[in-house]
Amino acid sequence: MADMALVEKVLRKVYDGIRIGPEEAVGLLKSMELQKIGQAADHVRRLKHPDSVVSFLIDRNINYTNVCVARCNFCNFYRPPKDPDGYVLPLEQIFQKIDEAIALGATGILMQGGMNPRLKIEFYEEMLRAIRSRYSIDLHCFSPPEIVVLSKLSKLSLRETIRRLRAAGLDSIPGGGAEILVDRVRKANSPGKCSSREWLEVMRTAHEEGMLTTATMMMGAGETIEERVEHLERLRSLQDETGGFVAFIPWNVQLEGTPLQTVIRKEISAVEYLMLLAVSRIYLDNFANIQVSWLTQGLQVAQVALHFGANDVGSIMIEENVISSAGAHYTATRDDLLELIRHSGFVPAQRDTLYRTFRKIA
User: Fold this and answer.
1) In this structure, are residues 70 and 190 in contact, taking their beta carbons and an 8 Å threshold?
2) CA 115 from centroid of its chain's CA atoms
3) 43-58 pLDDT per residue, tens
4) Which helix or strand (DSSP H or E) is residue 141 part of?
5) For the chain, which terminal residue's Cβ has fewer other Cβ atoms within 10 angstroms, N or C?
6) In the 8-state DSSP scheme, what is residue 306?
7) Which helix (H) or strand (E) holds 112?
8) Model pLDDT for residues 212-271, shown as the tens digit of each residue
9) What is residue 268's DSSP assignment?
């Protein structure tokens, strides 16, 4: 347990606008001072967002393939190569999903899939061009692990891969596959997935090419508090370099029916999640937006999180297959999110994928 005097000293720096260091963040996370840390995080949020607006998005997550070589022990969704249940969605089915999303007011498509060893750059270019030729919608697609595998399969550099995807219609890159940006944890949980260095290099290259991205964290998969802070430090350092991250999105791992469930039996509590969220808002002082994960924590915790540093409640999630297959069963409509935001004392505003708020809702 961190000393209360240490917490007070660290929070004094926060209120004075002074950046805190990794050891101080560890001290906050190990403390029991959730309320005080939450108040400090709320102070930082209000400085960055003084208009009391909380944003949300309407988009759809399309999993274009479930074939994957990452072998993540927290994933029930993927299928190994040659598995009879493996699939690659045909374009017509992707178009149908986009049509359904647009009918519900979607302004963006989040498209992610497995790391499929049969799909090279030409497949992705054809898919993006086909979508772009039919729709004017934000394409927020392909997490860093997918791009790393794609570049290797296609014998291209990361930069050339990203340039070709962008030329074909890609707008931005989601922060999936970050989990914890510490290789000890990654090797234990995702042996076939890219290293932390490679994940960061995809994002650095995308930012250098003028493309904005998001960043994520999956907590509760066997990492230490120190490793959580190391993850935050790596994100903050890259953001200092590039300024290309538009948001940070932490969530807690879902264990239901996964191999990881036999190793980790205790899921992240609401208190632990809120503490991480609050410290993230404080530590990531160069990130404008922090999104709460109602999908893994539920709407009631999400409502509280708006007073612990979060300023965004994410998407209504028209479709989500990966986290829900491991036990995340919460659902939300547009009206649910509006009610959540209003009852927390904020003004709801619909945004696009890159957090450009375009419509406040009275």
Assistant:
1) yes
2) 18
3) 999 999 999 999 999 9
4) strand 138-141
5) C
6) T
7) strand 108-112
8) 999 999 998 889 999 999 999 999 999 999 999 999 999 988 656 666 667 766 788 999
9) P
